[in-house]
Design brief:
This protein is of the alpha/beta class. Among the domains are: about 120 residues, Nucleotidyltransferase, domain 5 (2-Layer Sandwich), CATH 3.30.420; about 100 residues, Roll (Diaminopimelate Epimerase, Chain A, domain 1), CATH 3.10.310.30; about 110 residues, Beta Barrel (OB fold (Dihydrolipoamide Acetyltransferase, E2P)). The chain is about 40% helix and about 20% strand. The chain is built from 23 helices and 23 strands.
């Protein structure tokens, strides 16, 4: 546990109306100024990076607009996982809103990851002239070369690592080497969203126009040059002559927005450049009832007691006005940003930086405007990163794993409620079958391992799975890796046409994919992320490949680290209100873990076993509070029977059941109290 500066913690707790323990957690995570805390707790769409900072974005927008204007057939190709399908759904929503009917192609049946010649041929037969890939394409060099030979133009939107050679396409991928985009961790659905955002911006009157924002104060001048939702230059300390030189460098049709006490004289304006008052201009964009600076800030929910009036704040106001001032942009974002949160959480990307903005805003959108089918999946459960990660994502990933991707696609684009009920019912049935199969299969594998079966190949576990759906390989590898603590590779047998497919999974701490990529030339296809990847390889070579990978990995260890306790609190503090403050730190996940608490010296009033293997502690004098241990009934009984005081390490949640909400602790570990 960390030690904190109590003075600043209490000051920030008071400023944001937080419990000091919550403020302490924010400080421990590096958020130590009012502005940092506000952006974390209350991110705005203007906190996103400008989409045109991404290499390939401008030519992609130009090519799509040319296709739309000329009536060319546009196709969208997606992988079968939830990141790919939400990406496809977002692009489909964009095109249908501008009355374009795109051809949709996604992996079905036993098709493997990535584009194939057959998929290209399907697009050609459908009359496609421009094909946009989502969550895929970066490594499909030969397939895209074939598509180009068939007369197709290709736009690749992706977030996977590049190979040695890049395809002949317009590439929109923040992970590509040399790409200046500031945030590299977008999911595929985040990249697809950025493409749509760029397209929408390209239809605004402000597109391709430069705005020089100048702020004057007693300390001098500061200025920012903004173009197409991106800050191209920002200078915090300028003299009058500096400002005049900045003005003189402006291109035709630029606009100068002035705020505060700006003093510069004798400055000739370049042709086509005009001045405007910053406040009046922004008020016109957002149609604020108040044309004062304070009124605009209130309209945009920008707290000037936290964000002082400086050039950074003016830029934030200007960018936010561009986001909310266009009805079309605001309406489109509201309709799809929930899908960005689902796809991003499902792909386990880092929930920091721009992903936090997208996912938090997406969860807020789902809470306000729940998609009818998503509400069926949640079944009254509050929208949260846990609900999406544990309830929504596994269900919606299931159809793609068994070759029924069309169900997931229809889930997102179908409008008829009766049809959606049927789709959800079918997905639930598939998911129940999937859960049962994985549970039985993994139990058998672990029994074989405990029985002495040799599954180790150097530093990894290697499983040959007979006659399973190829989409289950990753789930099995993940389950076995969690159980053994070892990187795991699962290949699906028997081979087809001399080839086998498989997946690899590992815990964090081992650069699994990077190590495996050293052998990329020996695979037919391979792609993925650091701890999760898929591949196709020759059946005759796969055992030798796995042995060599295992030898390379043997020196690495993935011993799980002890949970980091964020805060120690007394049990009396735990109530619904405190837990709601914890939930302000959502979304939780990779890069922003759920807070872990410690309470010492607890006495128990009773212990209950439920569900066969789960346990529940109750506390004297706290009738509404329980502590749940999933799968911990045996160890909990031993601690309870000891009669001793206990220390609990846990996370917190409000449990809603039959219309009643009660606080509860979810136990991570139990220890006897010392002393």
């Amino acid at each position: 546990m960390n030690q904190f500066d109590d003075v600043s913690i209490r000051r920030h707790a008071e400023l944001f109306r937080l419990d000091p323990h919550i403020a302490a957690i924010l400080h421990s995570r590096g958020l130590k100024t009012p502005a940092q805390i506000d952006v974390f707790l209350n991110p705005m769409l203007s906190d996103m990076h400008g989409p045109f900072q991404m290499d390939g974005m401008r030519p992609a927008v130009e090519r799509i607009r040319r296709a739309v204007n000329s009536g060319e057939k546009i196709g969208i190709f997606a992988d079968s996982d939830l990141d790919g399908i939400t990406s496809l759904a977002i692009l489909h929503t964009f095109f249908t809103r501008i009355n374009v009917d795109p051809y949709l192609r996604y992996l079905t049946g036993e098709e493997s990851y990535g584009m194939t010649v057959e998929i290209v041929n399907d697009c050609v037969r459908a009359g496609v002239k421009l094909l946009i890939t989502v969550d895929s394409g970066t490594r499909d060099v030969s397939e895209i070369a074939y598509a180009r030979g068939q007369g197709l133009d290709i736009i690749v939107t992706d977030h996977h690592e590049e190979d040695i050679e890049l395809p002949d396409a317009i590439l929109v991928n923040p992970r590509l080497s040399g790409c200046p985009y500031p945030f590299k961790e977008l999911a595929g659905v985040g990249v697809a969203f950025k493409l749509c955002h760029a397209l929408l911006l390209s239809y605004l009157p402000s597109f391709n126009r430069s705005f020089l924002i100048i702020h004057g104060s007693d300390d001098g001048h500061s200025a920012a040059l903004v173009r197409d939702f991106s800050v191209e230059r920002l200078d915090r300390s300028l003299t009058g002559p500096d400002v005049e030189r900045a003005i003189a460098s402006l291109a035709d049709n630029s606009l100068i927005l002035v705020h505060g006490n700006c003093v510069f004289s004798g400055c000739p304006l370049p042709q086509g450049v005009v001045f405007a008052d910053f406040t009046q201009f922004v008020a016109g964009i957002v149609q604020s009832s108040s044309a004062t600076f304070a009124g605009i800030c209130m309209h945009l929910s920008i707290d000037t007691t936290i964000h002082i009036t400086d050039i950074e704040t003016l830029v934030r106001i200007f960018l936010e006005a561009q986001m909310v001032g266009s009805d079309k942009i605001r309406s489109f974002i509201d309709s799809v940003i929930g899908l960005v949160s689902i796809g991003s959480i499902a792909d386990v990307v880092s929930l920091t930086g721009e992903n936090r903005v997208l996912v938090k805003k997406g969860m807020e959108s789902l809470s306000r405007m729940t998609h009818p089918a998503i509400s069926m999946l949640l079944n009254g459960e509050q929208v949260s990163s846990r609900a999406i990660g544990w309830s929504v994502a596994p269900l919606l990933n299931t159809p793609g794993r068994v070759g029924r991707t069309e169900l997931a696609v229809r889930f997102f684009i179908e409008k008829d409620r009766e049809a959606l009920r049927s789709i959800v019912s079918e997905i639930r049935e598939l998911n129940d079958e999937r859960r049962e199969f994985i549970s039985v299969f993994c139990a058998r594998v672990m029994a074989d391992i405990h029985g002495g079966e040799d599954t180790m190949r150097g530093g990894l576990v290697y499983i040959k799975a007979d006659s399973i759906p190829e989409g289950y390989a990753g789930l099995i590898a993940n389950r076995i890796s969690d159980a053994t603590g070892k990187p795991t590779i699962v290949t699906v047998m028997p081979p087809r046409n001399g080839l086998v497919k498989g997946s690899g999974r590992s815990r964090s701490g081992i650069p699994f994919f990077s190590l495996v990529e050293e052998f990329r030339d020996r695979f037919e296809r391979i792609g993925g992320h650091e701890n999760a990847f898929g591949f196709t390889a020759s059946f005759d070579q796969i055992d030798e490949i796995i042995n060599d990978i295992g030898s390379t990995i043997e020196g690495f260890s993935s011993v799980p680290s002890e949970p980091v306790i964020d805060c120690e609190i007394p049990v009396e503090m735990i109530d619904i209100s405190f837990i709601r403050q914890v939930q302000l730190l959502e979304p939780f996940g990779n890069g922003n873990s759920e807070p872990i608490f410690l309470t010492r010296g607890l006495r128990l009033s009773s212990f209950i076993v439920f569900g066969g293997s789960h346990g529940k502690f109750l506390f004297p004098g706290r009738s509404g509070l329980t502590a749940i241990g999933w799968g911990m009934a045996t160890v909990m009984r031993d601690f309870f029977d000891s009669g001793k005081q206990l220390d609990l390490v846990y996370r917190l949640e409000n449990n809603a059941f039959n219309g009643t909400v009660r606080p509860r602790m979810i136990i991570i570990s139990i220890h006897f109290s010392s002393g």
